[in-house]
Amino acid sequence: MKKLLIALLLVILALGGAAYYFLGNINAIVKEQIETHGSNALQTSVKVGSVNIKLLDGFGEITGFSIANPKGYSAESALGFDTVRLDIGTENITEMPIIIEEILIDSVSTLYELNAQGKGNLNTLLDQISSQSATQKSDANEPADKSSDKSDIRLVVKKLVVKDTRLVLDLTALGQERYDETLPTFEIQNIGGSNGLPPEELGQAISKTMLDKIIKQAKKKQEQKLTAKAKEKLMEELDGKGGEKLKGLLNSFGN
C-alpha cells in the first residue's frame, strides 16, 4: 500500500511539473504553433512578434503578426496586424470545447495586389488554404496511426472583430494606379460551431473567413476605382469634343 501511495504521489508530481512547464512556456508554444501551422496552411511565411497569454485571467495578446505575399507577387507583406487580443472564457477552462469569447484584430494592414493576369494575392492565399484543407481531409480518411495520438483540444470563437483595416490596392500590373483605402469594421460569429475545432482547423477557418471578407471589400473598392478612372477618361475625351450635355448627364449619374 505504501508503494502504491508513493507511485501515485510521483504521478501527481510529474503531472504538476508538466502543467507548470506548459504554463511557463505557453507563450513560446503558441508562437511556434501559429508560425508553423500558419505557414503550412497558407504555404507562405507567417511570423509573430510576441505572445502574452494569461489563461487564468482569460487574457491573451499577440503582436507583430505578419503573412508574407505568396509566390508570384511582390516582396511586401500580404497581411499584418499590430495587435490581436483574445478574451478567453474561464468558467469551464478544463472542459471541451474551450470558449474564446472574442478575438479583436486591430490596425490591420492589407495589400490587395493584382498580377498581370488579374489574379489577386489574397485570392491565391485563399486557394492555398483550401488546398491544404482538402489534403488534410484526404489524410483523415486514411486508417489512423495509433502510434501518434492527435490532440483532443477543441476551440470555439464566439466573435471575431476586425477593425481599422488599412488597404493598399495595387493595380499597377494592369496599368492602373496604387491606392490607399480604409475598409469598414466587420464581425464574424461562432467560428467552430457548438463542438469546436482543433487549433489548426480553427486557424484555417479564421483565415478563410477573414480573407473572404477582405477580398470582397477590396474588390468593391477596385470596381469603384476602375469605374471612376473610366469616367475620368471619358470626361477628358468629351472635353475635346465639346460634349457638355453628355458630361452633365454622366455627372448626374455619379451623384
**Content-based structural category:** alpha+beta
Largest sheet, strands/sense/barrel: 9 strands, mixed
Sequence stretches where pLDDT stays below 50 over 5 or more residues:
1-22, 146-150
Mean pLDDT: 80
The amount of helix comes to: 40-55%
Q: Kindly provide the radius of gyration, computed on alpha-carbon positions and rounded to a whole number of angstroms.
A: 24 Å
The ordered string of helix (H) and strand (E) elements is HHEEEEEHEEEEHH
**Number of distinct beta strands:** 9
Count up the domains. 1
Strand content: 25-35%
Report on the structure:
The protein is of the alpha+beta class and 255 residues long. The protein has one domain (2-135, 153-240). It contains five helices and nine strands. The protein has helices at residues 2-24, 26-42, 121-140, 199-239, 244-254, and strands at 46-47, 50-54, 59-68, 77-88, 98-113, 155-163, 165-170, 178-183, 186-191. A hairpin with an 8-residue loop joins strand 3 and strand 4.
Give a quick summary of the entry.
The chain has helices spanning 2-24, 26-42, 121-140, 199-239, 244-254, and strands at residues 46-47, 50-54, 59-68, 77-88, 98-113, 155-163, 165-170, 178-183, 186-191. It is of the alpha+beta class and 255 residues long.
Question: What topology does this entry show?
Answer:
Layout: H1 2-24, H2 26-42, E1 46-47, E2 50-54, E3 59-68, E4 77-88, E5 98-113, H3 121-140, E6 155-163, E7 165-170, E8 178-183, E9 186-191, H4 199-239, H5 244-254
Parallel strand pairs: 5-6, 5-7
Antiparallel strand pairs: 1-3, 2-3, 3-4, 4-5, 6-9, 7-8
Helix pairs in contact: 3-4, 4-5
